[in-house]
Structure formats: C-alpha cells, structure tokens
Amino acid sequence: MAQFQNATVVKEANVYFNGNVTSRTVLLEDGSKVTLGIMLPGTYEFGTDTKEVMEILSGDLKVLLPDAKDWTHIQGQGTFSVPAQRTFKLEVRSVTDYCCSYQ
Amino acid sequence: MAQFQNATVVKEANVYFNGNVTSRTVLLEDGSKVTLGIMLPGTYEFGTDTKEVMEILSGDLKVLLPDAKDWTHIQGQGTFSVPAQRTFKLEVRSVTDYCCSYQ
Q: Where, if anywhere, are coiled coils annotated (chains A, B) (predicted)?
C-alpha cells in the first residue's frame, strides 16, 4: 500500500466542478507538493500553472493533451504530463483516482 | 489553514457509492487515524466499526443518528458522533467536506 510518510496534509478539500473533481493537498518531506484527487465521470478542461505530472492510480479516462490531435486512453493505471501554462481536456468514463505532482 | 503535520497519507482513495463518497486515510503522529472525505448529494447509510466522530468542514446535510427519531441538520460546519457497531443515515444536500476520526 503506497503511502507518503512525514507529510503535511491540508485538512480542507479542493473542490472543482460542483464536487465532481475533488482533491486533498499533501506537502511532502522534500518540499514538493502533490494533490490526491478523485474525478467522477464527466468532461473537464483544466489549466496548468506549473508543469503537472498526473499519475492515474485507477480509473478509465481519455486525455487530450496540449497540441495533441488525438485522445490518449488510460484504463486502469497510467501517467501523463502537461507543461506549465497550458490547458488539457479530460473525458472521465469511470471514477478515477489520481495523484498529481507539480514541478 | 488547518493541516495535519508529520502524517502518513495512504495514496489510494477509499471509494464508496460509485464514487459519490470518497476519502483518503491519514495516519496521525499520535497513532490515531482520520479520513478526509467528500460526499456528493445523495442519501447514504453507513455502519461504524469503532466510535466515529464526524467533523463537517463544509456542506449541507441531514443526519439520522442511531436511536434518534429526528434528523439533525448541519449547514456549514458541525460535528456529530456515532457509537461503535451502529448504523446512521445521511441525506447530503450539497457537496460536503468532512474529517472523520476513529476512537
């Protein structure tokens, strides 16, 4: 069971899209930040501030990355990255559990 | 901004009711456990193992505690407790952010 040790967890949730996307912020020992989140089925567009690495822990979703013409399909587990200051689209098909890292 | 320091966070989410209720498990420095969760609108019945103290961080929900005849309404913030080995019902009216402690 993967765990983050010696972490600081922000109690209050981050809530987007009427709660269809929610996450908790976790500050790691090395000073970096991740958010652990859940996305319910739906279509979403997100914008990045810094570069983001999205690790899909479980789920079923299609991703349209910036500049991509074709959607990427992740079923189960997977990882994708989005550069800073860009937007990307998601089509979430089943409940998706993720860990997003900010770089 | 309330935070848990020196915590261990389980990466994988706990998912209930098709993702309408989800939480993350956080193991605290003193050895106790909390779950930080989100409930979307709906009606739910839960059973307790140990005694649970539910702190509502934000939301709008009605609670029917064990042995209670009347529902309790929490709008915004609040706290309620449920003894071990009992069931309770929730009618969640808007996205509800909670912290559940186990005793």
A: none
Q: Choose among A2, A18, A95: nearest Cβ to B95.
A: A18
Superfamily of structural domain B20-102: Jelly Rolls (2.60.120.10)
Mean pLDDT (10-residue bins), chain A, 103 residues: 95 97 97 97 97 98 97 97 98 98 94
ipTM of the complex: 0.92
Q: Does B1 contact A at CB distance below 8 Å?
A: yes
Pick the CATH number of A8-102 from 2.60.40.1930, 2.60.40.3500, 3.40.50.620, 2.60.120.10: 2.60.120.10
- Which is nearest to B5 in space by CA: A9, A99, A50? A9
Q: How many CB atoms lie within 10 A of CB B61?
A: 25
Kindly state whether B76 is in contact with chain A, defined as any CB-CB distance less than 8 angstroms.
no
